[in-house]
Amino acid sequence: MAKKSKKQNQSGGTPATVALSAAGTSFTVHAYEHDPAHPSYGEEAAEAMGVSPERVFKTLVAEVDGELTVAVVPVSGSLDLKALASAVSGKRAAMADPAAAERTTGYVRGGISPLGQRKKLRTVLDASAERHETICVSAGRRGLEIELAPADLAKLTDAVVAPIGRA
User: Using CA atoms, how far apart are residues 11 and 158, in angstroms rounded to an integer?
Assistant: First the structure.
């Protein structure tokens, strides 16, 4: 199990790290220099941390039957929108407007964390997360990742765990 790192940023952390600390959850923060020219936030994080892309998960915001829904899937694959809709008993899913996702979560694209969002959204975690002791997700800022147990992430976000990713 990962231990809480002392590498929090100078402002005391992000809403995501604050939420984890408040819940008493073990986690590690990984910081790296974000390159704005990199074509993929998630792949950049995996490369910078030296972690397999299957263990680094991206946070995507979709609209399922008109309701914003968070999907957490490995950066090595993509989101299956039909599977996401099915996981929450919905009919139709589409990617959310980026501005709506930023406004609702309180985070910027490339730094949206499934934790500490301005408005708690229903969340679906890809079932592949359960294959790993720990996974990494955005800590709420580009260049900052949180490593934690998938079960802890699911518990703190009240996530449904379902196969929503495609390789």
Answer: 27
How many secondary structure helices (H) and strands (E) does the chain include?
A: 5, 10
- DSSP letter, residue 124: E
CB 78 within 8 A of CB 60: no
β pairing state of 122-126 and 78-79: unpaired
> What does the alpha-carbon distance between residue 64 and residue 86 come to, in Å, rounded to a whole number?
9
Model confidence pLDDT, tens digit, residues 22-56 = 999 999 999 998 888 888 888 889 899 999 999 99
Give whole-number Cα distances, 126 to 7, 50, 67, 129, 148, in Å: 28, 22, 19, 6, 15
> 92-138, pLDDT tens digit by residue?
999 999 999 999 999 999 899 999 999 999 999 999 999 999 999 99
Cross-strand partners of 140: none
- Rounded to two decimals, the pTM is 0.90
Place of tokens 């998630």: 42
- Residue 86, classified by CB atoms within 10 Å of its CB into exposed (0-12), middle (13-18) or buried (19+), is middle
- Cα–Cα distance for residue pair 62/76, rounded to 1 Å: 18
